[in-house]
Design brief:
alpha+beta; globular
């Protein structure tokens, strides 16, 4: 089989493998906010609703002022602005109210861990991890707390959560849903890297292979001439 054909097959297999790998999201740990150490040592704070807004990410949803409002309270101990998912979609005194909220990872960026603060967890809160249009993992309030009763102060319902996944899982959208007001969060941190898309890797392999093939052909011609 000719070299270029072999390289083409290898590139195809690489691209297929990257899209067919089974995705997984693991909840590694959670710590009450009264003693939370914040981001892991390997993570970088990427979004906090108070000036840190990494351009590799985008947020869609409500941003509430310090102290919150009549239906949404900040995670325990949080004295700054924060995000929240609230049912309904309307224009009120504070602008548009979104039903869901989401943190998006923009194209060309890969994350392998994510941690953030969640406040006053309720059993009707839902956390989703997506890879493009594929729902990878759902966590209900009962998956995140032993007693998701909405208490705004205690560690049982106000915690920092640490999630991990593989780069190949391509987790790029985290969605917060709530069946009743509200689902609050703040201080997103992640392990972030930028890597070529699978198609880019495939083209690089083909490109390097073609250069090698041409060099090999020229060498054989030169040897034939010399003989």
């Amino acid at each position: 089989m000719r070299l270029v054909s072999k390289l083409a097959i290898a590139a195809f297999v690489l691209g297929a493998a990257s899209t067919s790998a089974s995705a997984a999201v693991t909840l590694d740990n959670s710590i009450g906010l009264s003693s939370s150490p914040g981001p892991l040592g390997t993570e970088t704070l990427v979004w906090d609703f108070n000036g840190i807004a990494d351009p590799r990410f985008a947020y869609i949803g409500n941003v509430l002022p310090p102290g919150g409002n009549v239906v949404a309270a900040p995670p325990a101990g949080d004295t700054t602005a924060f995000g929240a998912a609230e049912p309904g979609y309307e224009v009120g005194l504070h602008g548009i109210t979104f039903s869901d909220a989401e943190l998006d990872v923009l194209p060309g960026t890969i994350i392998t861990s994510l941690s953030f603060d969640l406040g006053s967890l309720d059993d009707y809160n839902t956390l989703q991890f997506w890879s493009d249009g594929t729902l990878v993992k759902t966590f209900l309030g009962a998956d995140l707390s032993v007693n998701p009763n909405g208490n705004q102060l205690i560690d049982v319902t106000n915690r920092r959560y640490y999630f991990s996944f593989l780069a190949a899982d391509d987790i790029n959208r985290i969605v917060f849903k709530s069946g009743d007001p509200a689902f609050e969060f703040d201080n997103f941190a992640a392990n972030v890297s930028g890597v070529p898309e699978p198609a880019t890797w495939a083209m690089m392999i083909l490109g390097f292979g073609f250069v090698g093939f041409m060099l090999r052909g020229n060498r054989q011609k030169n040897l034939a001439v010399a003989a």
